[in-house]
Amino acid sequence: MNIVLNGVTVAIKSPPLASLLTVLREELNVTSTKVGCEQGGCGACTALVNGKPQRTCLTPIAAVDGASVTTVEGLGDSDHLTAVQQSFVNHYAAQCGFCTPAMIIAATAYLEGNGSSDREEIEEALKGHTCRCTGYQKIVSAVAAAVAETTFDLTVTTPSPNTVIKSGGQT
Question: Model confidence over 54-66: pLDDT tens digits?
Answer without folding.
Answer: 999 999 999 999 9
